[in-house]
């Protein structure tokens, strides 16, 4: 499985994402600059965290209008996996690939520490290697991670099991403690906590490993089924 880690001006978690998949998980991966790149030969798209375009306008708003997002939308429409972490999640909501929006944290401060999360749905290509209800530990690092959506969207998210991760101790005011959601088709996941920063015990947790392993295993199963 070959991953593209998309790099925007202002991305700053791109190297961590690349390190996680390339060095720790030993998968093929490239850092892919947002301009002049072709995504056709990649199996999975990883939108890393950071401050794309300096968070101007709104976090992720400018990046969401970039040309590479058109290719990412085509990739997603084919059912291929897309994972957006932190600023990546913000870009996915701004681009309309995921519903809702990320608002300023309730306490209006940037927060950077480890949080316990609950795996709400383990029947996804991103979480198959976890148990349902399992508590995992990933770091957060954001100023605008307060997930918001209207009542109708929330109902839909629940009805379709699109809420993948929740916070055990909601740090930012997110609706229903939501930490990560996927699209209805189940191939686009956005989450504020950083699984790529939880892939080695040295970092305080390696709970993020199984998220990438789930994606890789799913791709292998699909590849084998289509061979
Ligand atoms: N680590 C990140 O991706 C941060 C995202 C965004 N700049 C925020 O502060 O909310």
TrEMBL record:
Keywords: ATP-binding, Cytoplasm, Glutamine amidotransferase, Hydrolase, Ligase, Nucleotide-binding, Purine biosynthesis. The active site is at residues 86, 194, 196. Its EC number is 6.3.5.3, 3.5.1.2. The keyword Nucleotide-binding applies. It catalyses: L-glutamine + H2O = L-glutamate + NH4(+); N(2)-formyl-N(1)-(5-phospho-beta-D-ribosyl)glycinamide + L-glutamine + ATP + H2O = 2-formamido-N(1)-(5-O-phospho-beta-D-ribosyl)acetamidine + L-glutamate + ADP + phosphate + H(+). The keyword Cytoplasm applies. Pathway: Purine metabolism; IMP biosynthesis via de novo pathway; 5-amino-1-(5-phospho-D-ribosyl)imidazole from N(2)-formyl-N(1)-(5-phospho-D-ribosyl)glycinamide: step 1/2. Its main location: cytoplasm. GO terms for cellular component: cytoplasm. It is found in: Cytoplasm. Gene3D superfamilies: 3.40.50.880. It holds the Pfam family GATase_5. One of its GO terms (biological process) is 'de novo' IMP biosynthetic process. GO terms for molecular function: ATP binding; glutaminase activity; phosphoribosylformylglycinamidine synthase activity. PROSITE patterns: GATASE_TYPE_1 (PS51273). Part of the FGAM synthase complex composed of 1 PurL, 1 PurQ and 2 PurS subunits. Part of the phosphoribosylformylglycinamidine synthase complex involved in the purines biosynthetic pathway. Catalyzes the ATP-dependent conversion of formylglycinamide ribonucleotide (FGAR) and glutamine to yield formylglycinamidine ribonucleotide (FGAM) and glutamate. The FGAM synthase complex is composed of three subunits. PurQ produces an ammonia molecule by converting glutamine to glutamate. PurL transfers the ammonia molecule to FGAR to form FGAM in an ATP-dependent manner. This is Phosphoribosylformylglycinamidine synthase subunit PurQ. It comes from Oceanobacillus profundus.
